[in-house]
Amino acid sequence: MPLDRFSTQSAAYAQYRITYPAALYDWLLPQVPGRERAWDCATGNGQVAAALALHFAHIEATDLSANQLKQASALPNVHYQTSPAEHSPFADASFDLITVGQAVHWFDEPAWHREARRVLRPGGVLAEWGYQLCRLETPELNRVLDEFHDVTSAPYWDANRRHIADEYAHIAFPFAGVQHARFAVEKHWTAEDMLNYLGTWSATANYARQHAGADMVALVAEELTRLWGPGARLVSFPVFARAGVAR
Fold first, then answer.
1. What topology is assigned to 10-245 in CATH?
2. pLDDT tens digits for the chain (247 residues)?
3. pTM (predicted TM-score)
4. What are the domain boundaries of the chain?
5. Which of 9, 62, 114, 151 is the residue whose CA sits 20 to 30 A from 70?
6. What does the alpha-carbon distance between residue 217 and residue 148 come to, in Å, rounded to a whole number?
């Protein structure tokens, strides 16, 4: 069954999740033979769809969550609709490119890749990417984040989330000419920004469901805010990506 872990925090997700770097698109787009149609699957708030809209004549952008789609910007060449990844409404051989950012681990992998191959044109490209837990320049703050991620929130992560830790190494990718790349996204965040980002985690939403709406982030807020201090700090997110060609 498809998993929706982000509808309840869709507004915060749109504000505090990272945007992907221009370098990712500079790496990806030269691999794509056509510029007619692209599908951004699990588009969330539409940030990738908006980036692709600068390069393709038409974008289809889908997500399980209608609440997430409400956060997306209206653009003349982007069409948003709710749909599961594994059973899309699209015709065979419809797309030059399919993208999935930070979502493949929620999919039924065999069904998803069958669907991607069905709707890609011959020579079309599927690109999947995600990002790891952020890093700061202060070891003590990294320790607090690691403990919150690896210990406090550990019982509340869905099992699927383990695929982020191993960068999709155990999710099959049955496409040709596979290319891999790494990038970094840097943000200058205050302690409040970081706490709001932690509030977008699926584990945070799961905790609230299991504890009558309680906020798991409150368990780390005091210590993180004290160590962070006033002002902004540099936060770096490691991004991993893979792309392959449909035959």
1. Rossmann fold (3.40.50)
2. 455 544 455 455 457 678 999 999 999 999 999 999 999 999 999 999 999 999 999 999 999 999 889 989 999 999 999 999 999 999 999 999 999 999 999 999 999 999 999 999 999 999 999 999 999 999 999 999 999 999 999 999 988 888 998 999 999 999 999 999 999 999 999 999 999 999 999 899 999 999 999 999 999 999 999 999 999 999 999 999 999 999 8
3. 0.88
4. 10-245
5. 114
6. 9
